[in-house]
Write a structure and sequence with these properties.
Blueprint: E1 2-7, E2 10-16, H1 22-31, E3 34-40, E4 45-50, E5 69-70, E6 74-80, E7 85-96, E8 98-99, E9 103-104, E10 108-115, H2 117-124, H3 127-130, E11 134-140
Antiparallel strand pairs: 1-2, 1-11, 2-10, 3-4, 3-11, 4-7, 5-7, 6-7, 6-10, 8-9
């Protein structure tokens, strides 16, 4: 399974890890397309999250393919039921999903951008200066 991620005028593609996070990836696939805005992940480094919430799993479902350290192009899902934040997110540099006071949070590593990564990183690095960008995450049908 592959997705297209459009941030502003930049388009990249990502492979989804259906073998490592099957339930989360399947739920994301069924939910697509997503049209939203980027929100800089305040505590987590070079990453953004969706503005809207996306309930892909139930609160009882375990986090699949957990990730601690993220790098540019990593696609994650944060099932933050306690905080009310259920987010799809993408790193555009070094990141770690953190709560205030630098507390690591459990996230599912569900994919990786594998095309046009350099331009994607360049575009996303402007979020902190220019504010949110419009995004669209959609299926690439094979």
């Amino acid at each position: 399974m592959r997705i297209q991620v459009k941030v502003g005028d930049t388009v990249a593609e990502a492979a989804l890890f259906e073998d490592k996070a099957p339930k989360t990836v399947s739920a994301l696939w069924e939910r697509l397309p997503i049209q939203d805005r980027t929100i800089q992940a305040r505590w987590s480094g070079d990453a953004w999250r969706t503005e809207g919430n996306y309930e892909l799993l139930t609160q009882a479902d375990p986090v699949e393919n957990g990730a601690e350290r993220l790098s540019a192009g990593d696609v994650i899902y944060y099932p933050g039921y306690r905080s009310g934040l259920l987010k799809v997110a993408i790193a555009y540099g070094n990141a770690q999903w953190l709560a205030p006071f630098m507390v690591p949070l459990d996230v599912s590593h569900i994919g990786k951008i594998d095309t046009n990564l350099d331009q994607f990183v360049e575009q996303c690095s402007q979020i902190i200066f220019q504010g949110p960008f419009e995004i669209e995450i959609s299926r690439i049908e094979s």
